[in-house]
């Protein structure tokens, strides 16, 4: 039996089996990840610097574009909002490397670092070649009805970003003094 103070704006007081005896306690509404399947957050962006290439033996910096998203729709027959909050980031590199972070990473400029400096989300490729990087972002979900307080949903979801292609090349610096043909024993010749 539903309580006498059942209001559409507070569905938790309306929960329960309508065929249950009046003296039986009302069961709370339990929203699961399956219930919010129609609420689809955007895929995260899978970025890196330098853009699409790296140098063998030097860090390439990876940055995810993911933030809190609030989606509106219908949940359990009522208007509702579902909020998705990123709580974990994982970059899986095709050379076998895996980088995990609680944050999305940041550009070298934002961090106040020089290019090719190590960061919490950087990765060093040992060999030249072509690689791919897959990004997955773990999000937790919460819901609310008609502006009520946010309520947590048990479990997390994993959102996949588009794979990032990385071309890794060798880089050699050579210091010379003049023309090596004219001075073959000079530095760098």
Please describe the structure with a list of short key phrases separated by commas or semicolons.
189 residues; mainly beta; Immunoglobulin-like; 2 domains; 3-stranded antiparallel β-sheet; 10 strands; rod-shaped; PKD domain-containing protein; PKD_dom
Any overview of this molecule?
The chain is an all-beta fold and 189 residues long. The protein has two domains: 1-30, no CATH class; 31-169, Immunoglobulins (Immunoglobulin-like, Sandwich), CATH 2.60.40. The protein has one helix and ten strands, in the order ββββββαββββ. The protein has one helix at 108-111; strands at 45-49, 53-55, 59-65, 69-75, 78-93, 98-101, 122-124, 129-145, 151-160, 164-169. Strands 2, 4, 5, 6, 8, 9 and 10 form a seven-stranded mixed β-sheet that branches. Strands 1-3-7 form a three-stranded antiparallel β-sheet, with no helix packed on it. A hairpin with a 4-residue loop joins strand 5 (78-93) and strand 6 (98-101). Mean pLDDT is 86; it is low at 1-20.
Short description:
By secondary structure, this protein is mainly beta. It folds into two domains: 1-30, no CATH class; 31-169, Sandwich (Immunoglobulin-like), CATH 2.60.40. 2% of the residues lie in helices and 41% in strands.
Q: Per CATH, which architecture of the largest domain? A: Sandwich
Global shape: rod-shaped
CATH superfamily of the largest domain: Immunoglobulins
Instruction: Work out the radius of gyration.
Output: 27 Å
